[in-house]
Amino acid sequence: MSLYELERDGKAQELIRLLRESDNERVKTRAAELLGNFEDHDDRRDVVNALVDAAQSDSDAITGAAIDSLDELGDDAITQLIGSMAGVDLEDDAADWVKAKAYMQVLDADVPELRMAAANGLGNLDQADAVPKLAERFEDPDPRVRARAARSAGKIGDSRATTPLESVLSDPKAGVRREAADALGNIGNRQALQALLPLYEDDDERVRRIAVGAFGNFGNDRPVDYLIEALSDDSAAVRRTAVYSLIELLSNVPTDQSHEIRDTVVEKLSNTDDRSVVVPLVEILEESTQAAQRRNTAWMLGRVTSQEERDRVIESLVDALGEDDQMLRQFAATSLAELGDDDNMVERRLLKIVQDDGVDPEVRGQAIFTLGKVGGERSRKTLDKLIDETEHDVVRKKAFSAISKLGGRG
Fold first, then answer.
1. Are 19 and 59 spatial neighbours (Cβ–Cβ below 8 Å)?
2. Displacement of CA 174 from its chain's centroid (Å)
3. Residue boundaries of the structural domains of the chain
4. Residue 192's closest CA among 224, 225, 232, 158?
5. Which one, of 330, 331, 271, 339, lies nearest residue 305 by Cα?
6. What's the pLDDT at 270?
7. DSSP code of 360?
8. What burial class does residue 103 get, using C-beta atoms within 10 Å of its C-beta: 0-12 exposed, 13-18 middle, 19+ buried?
9. Is the dihedral of CA 313, 317, 318, 320 positive or negative?
């Protein structure tokens, strides 16, 4: 029976036997690889014990395969390996600082896979005291170790990692730069974010996307110009991320700055590909759960929408009129007015809301307000009739105000 068939049929004990007793290094290596697929097996404990022993063999190939499989089996499996190597009994209820101490010892192991496993484990333990030791691995000869160490430092999020991570941003390996950029974004202090700014033009698309994604965490307008530049990136993913970051930035900056930044953004967006901006904006309005993001998006859509995306934008803004968030409704209404209505599409959609007695009066009132901006003779006649028939004061009041802008009652 082949090794693949043993794995397929769940013959864990037979694979364990081959891992321990075979004289063929390739067979033992393959057995170690396949045992990583037995996470839910009844013999999982025996699988982990066998892999822990194999991970400390003299063969780099077998060691690497065993460590990768332990990693597949979960944190507890890696913890057992680290404890075995450090000579510490790491029970499930062992204190995190005890586990971290053992992991830090293994960070100096000769085998790179072991250093990778130790770096991974430290990221999951969230022990700030491990950051200086992880930073030492930023100069590891193996790029995989450098990448894992940077990722774990970002998970921990201690500011002491900021300066060491900055040096990793110039690493020759794009994968390492990506992890360093992501880590700095997670740390998110002023120094970390400042270090990311030049990366909007990194050679690697994923590095650019990670950096641009972090720009939304700024609490000031420092990254606006960089985000505008990113809207012209060759990568659609980077352009989309830049739109999301612009909206996030507007949500994070102080209110007295957000108005000025919005105006700056709109002015600069006039020179970009409208579609690359509008589609992600619509997605934010439709899918985001953050009130501030949706409000800023609704406002923006009225100022940057292209003719190509106009119908979709109108539908999204009209739907937003029915939301519970009053400020979102107001921004959606002003954006609909800003779009204008040469084809009467906005008027038709709003009249459906206004004439539906089942719609909340506040929502109908918001639609009426917008009709006062974009409506025509049809709207004037509808509102004239509505004033006499409605039972809702808010609807009547809004209708009086709107009809006065449309030429008055007939």
1. no
2. 20
3. 358-409
4. 158
5. 339
6. 66
7. -
8. buried
9. positive
The packing angle between helices 361-374 and 345-354, to 10°, is 150
DSSP classification of residue 332: H
Cβ-proximal residues to 385 (8 Å cutoff; 6+ apart), any chain: none
Question: How many angstroms separate the Cα of 219 from the Cα of each of 9, 141, 216?
Answer: 56, 37, 8
Using 50, 70 and 90 to split pLDDT, how confident is the model at 273?
low
pTM of the model: 0.74
Tokens 């063969």, located at residue? 59
Q: Do 353 and 387 contact (CB within 8 A), yes or no?
A: no
353 vs 363: CA distance, rounded Å: 8
- Taking the C-alpha atoms of residue 266 and residue 243, their distance in angstroms, rounded to an integer, is 12
Q: What 3-state DSSP class applies to 229?
A: helix
- Taking residue 89's Cβ as centre, other Cβ atoms within 10 Å add up to 11
pLDDT at 274: 58
On whether the CB atoms of residues 370 and 346 are closer than 8 A, the answer is yes
